[in-house]
Amino acid sequence: MSIVGCMPPALPIEIWERVINYLWTDAVALAACSVVCKAWRARCRYHLITSVDLVDRQRTQWLVRLLNEDPGLRSMVVHVAIYGTFRAGRTTQGPVPHLASFAAGLAKKLPCMKILDLRHAEVAATPLHRLSFVHLSCFTSITTLYLSRVTFSSKPLCARLLCALSNLEQLACEDVLFSSSKVDPSVLPPAVPRVKTLWMDGHSDDVVDLITSELGLAEFMEDVRIGDSPHVLHPPSGRSVMSLLQHAGPSLKQLMIQLRAPPSIKKPHDGAVSKGATASVRPSSYLLESEGSWLSVGHCTILERLIVGCRLPMSTAQGPDSYRNVYSAWLCSLLASTTSQKLSMLVIILDVRLIRYTGASHLLDRAIEFLEQQDSTQMNRLLIGPRFQSLKRVCIHLLCGIEAIPPDHIQWESLVSSHFPKLCERNILQ
Predict the structure, then answer these.
(1) How far is Cα 195 from Cα 171, in angstroms, rounded to an integer?
(2) Beta-carbon neighbour count of residue 392 at 10 Å?
(3) How do residues 44-102 score in pLDDT, each as one tens digit?
(4) What is the longest distance spanned by two Cα atoms in the chain?
(5) What are 257-295's pLDDT values in tens digits?
């Protein structure tokens, strides 16, 4: 038998490309495949280039050389993530001198880049000098900026970064801090982008002050999402949230807010940190402060969609792990603060992922307990009142963990319907 006769049949390149597509998140595998043969190179390069992670200057210089050698690849770059210190496969917060290298090397060369992602970074005035912001201003196609675990040496430095991206529409801030919060208004950029969407989580007070009072970015916002990151331990303070809602309220059409409290935090009665609380953390830094009474959407006069999520504790009953005071009827108070006559959709998410799973009936018991504590009867009357005449859809969801088996759909529907009968009569409860 000849050797040729034992060879497998050649596969069409379309089949190989489908296989390569499954490796789109594995840069190492893609790089290996790219040198197997010329037929594979184009598809591998496409995935390698579409979304690029830059962890140091060497990687940045490689990208600059590649795009200079093959200009046809430039239009493929959509998402660039720039990270801080990278050691032994782990990323930690550190300087990002390669941000300046990236900006200088590729200014006006990435016409389709939409997303700039800055993570685990310490951004200082040196080496990020004024010319770097001139280079960044050439990236006119960027519409989304992610800032995650970033420390700026000063507020003006952050302001220059935001304002350099003149077409910025979406901004995400997660644990963004300033080494110095002092700022001279005269050094702030005169022109600001029209940011329509803001995602915010973590320590954000200084960022909110910059966005609202100092740059005036909030006046253009139509969509605000607060506290929905699964990786952040400490959500923004109530003060910063309310400041943001006050400034963005007149233009805000959608608000999504996740209320949560870590299991280790207990609400003391005297304002001091309790013995069971995490060290040096005051309850006022959490979204669930002052029994939730601080939260109001009264400034959101044209709000159309309101999405509220709350992480339920193991139990709201009295006891050593009680959250009764923290969770008392804040949801009803929030709805009562509504002034918008345009609210058409309300979504309430009961997050039970913190609850140790003992069966679907246990999750239902916790949901019932929460709804009764929130005075669902009053909410039912409130939501059919004149201020909610535009309401067309009310959704109440139970968010379970991966390992949990959720309650039967009919059981959940029956539970919700029993607490909101008048919404059922209007046929808007889903």
Answers:
(1) 7
(2) 12
(3) 667 667 888 898 889 899 889 988 988 888 998 999 999 987 665 666 788 888 999 99
(4) 89
(5) 987 653 333 333 333 333 333 333 333 333 444 334 568
Report how far residue 290's alpha carbon sits from residue 325's, in angstroms, rounded to the nearest whole number: 9
> In this structure, what are the phi and psi dihedrals at residue 241, rounded to the nearest 5 degrees?
-65, -50
Give Rg (Cα) of the chain: 25
Domain-wise residue ranges, the chain = 282-430
Tell me if residue 86 falls in helix, strand or coil.
Answer: strand
Three-state DSSP at 23 gives coil
Structure tokens at 382: 């409130």
DSSP state of 111: T
Report which of 294, 354, 346, 362 is spatially closest to residue 323, judged by C-alpha positions: 354
Cβ-Cβ contacts under 8 Å for 7 (sequence gap 6 or more): none
Q: Which two tokens stand for residue 79?
A: 């998402």
Both tokens of 281, joined, read: 């953390």
> What distance in Å separates the CA atoms of residue 150 and residue 116, rounded to the nearest whole number?
13
Alpha carbon distance 40, 43 (integer Å): 6
Site of tokens 């009680």: 322
How many C-beta atoms lie closer than 10 Å to residue 197's C-beta? 17
Written as one string, the DSSP assignment of 339-380 is --S---EEEEEEE-TTSPP--HHHHHHHHHHHHHHTTHHHHH
Closest alpha carbon to 331 in 320, 319, 321, 316 = 316
The total of other beta-carbon atoms located within 10 Å of residue 187's CB is: 12
Does the pTM surpass 0.90? The reply is no
Contact criterion met (CB below 8 Å) for 185 and 213: no
The pLDDT tens digits for 212-240 are 988 889 989 999 999 877 667 677 888 88
Omega of the bond prior to 9 within 30 degrees of 0, cis? no
Q: Which amino acid is at 301?
A: T
